[in-house]
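Hi P.,

Sorry for the delay on this. The queue was packed all week, but I finally got your sequence through. Input first:
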Amino acid sequence: MSQPNAEWIACLIRDGFSDYREKFETITRQAKSCFEAADWQAIQRLSAQRIDLYKVMVDRVSQQIRARVEVLSSSWWISVKACYRELMAGYQDAELGETFYNSVYCRLHNHREISDQHMFLCSHSRACEALDIDHVCRTYHLTEGLVVCLSQLMDDYRFEIPWENKRRDMRNLLRYIRRYLSDNIAVDNTVIQVVRSVFYRNKGAYIVGRVRGDNHSLPFILPVLNNESGEVYIDTVLTDENDVSIIFSFTRAYFLVAVDVPAAFIHFLHSLIPMKSIAELYSAIGFYKQGKAEFYRDYIQHLENSKDQFEIAPGTKGMVMTVFTLPSYPVVFKVIKDSFSSSKQITRHGVIAKYQLVKRHDRAGRMADTQEFINLTLPLKRFSDDLLAELLNVATSSIEVVGDQVVIKHMWTERRMIPLNIYLDEMLRQDNEQAVYLAINEFGQCIKELAAANIFAGDMLFKNFGVTRHGRVVFYDYDEILYLTECHFRYIPEPLYPEQEMAAEPWYSVSTNDVFPEEFSLLTACDKRIRKVFNELHGDLLDPGWWINIQAEVSRGAIIDLYPYRKACRFSR
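Then the structure:
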């Protein structure tokens, strides 16, 4: 087998990347027509198809290289990287091209021999230096008045179907501005900058921008909905930074939004919501592998500038995963255990499949996004003795100590949250009834919104849910999740005689995927205050009839409205 030159391999990777980007944008641009047609299932299919695309394209290029090359020495890859860097010069999405190259390299080397000599551990892209705000945004001046400005904005962002009532929407916007934003609006020195591309996700389209003056900048989002009768309307306006941040949450599906210059696009978004990391923002607009690359770079830099040790994550130990964290960094690391509790009817392969399901599925604002790593190397000296002993005891097949490094063969990272059971215990100790009430309400809403998205959480113990900094309750333990449509919700049969009810084993047959909602009351049996709030707010979750009804809606293909903002802030129509 002949050994091709470095330029041939670099060109092959470059062409594969270009093909990937073209297909990515083709999928993305279909979202607009799907939104206009109110074809919500099609939008969800596009989202899953685009997530799958990356692996398909990396596999294709890797196979093409393997077909021509037996082994490439390290010196070869130094040359390939140099050629590839030259080929990508001037590309407006060069940082994505570097990550695509890294993915091909890792696929060929099984995520080993990781070095900045051979791949782009440090990015060489300089796309952000040439930021042109006019390329990313339309700018509106207020010199002709706010009414003219808003009218022009709605004309510029019109769809192929008409506004339901443009005058009413403008009136709603004007009332909001005069009530909440009058201090930020000055005709002479205020401009409105709006991202040229509309963001699509599920049943919503989002117009994103900011109001900018001499000494202030205020982000805003205009959610646009389809009335499913061939017209669209502005549902509300969001200007609170926390509300804007939640729209871009790590618990939601990725946006479908056309992006020509990703670095410039991300730079602008980050100026709107600086509390969001660059990694999170890349993921939010669909470049989740770039999000992973940015996270890795940030994390390695953090390791170099910190001294604390990895330790076992607080909370109840899982039966399937062992979880650890670095206290100074807001993520957890999840590693599959070698063996599971006898109560867990799942295999290692099954766990991996569950995490892949969550990656592709609509997370409905209630499931945490994850990043998967293979053969991640971390410094041994940063592991606490207790953690290292725990990993070597329960996850030996996934852990290898090599010299002064710990190699984790397979793991996921996930945003760190306060486990709900710990949060509730603390609020009860403080006699903070309001916090308990809100958390239990969020817990019930989380379960219901997951059900509406065709997800049954399975193990619904409080320890499997977390509380975010916004006070939202999010599900994060995926080994028992099922599609709601796969479940068989049943009432518990009445016992034939008292001895049956007192027996250790159930007196009725239980088949695979049978679910008995009446048993959920065990969740709240620990504290009467929690049980009282749960029964008051979400007692319907204990009724199999509720589950059967929502299951029927989902089975009919209904995509239930799940707004990523409070219903109370919606405009009247």
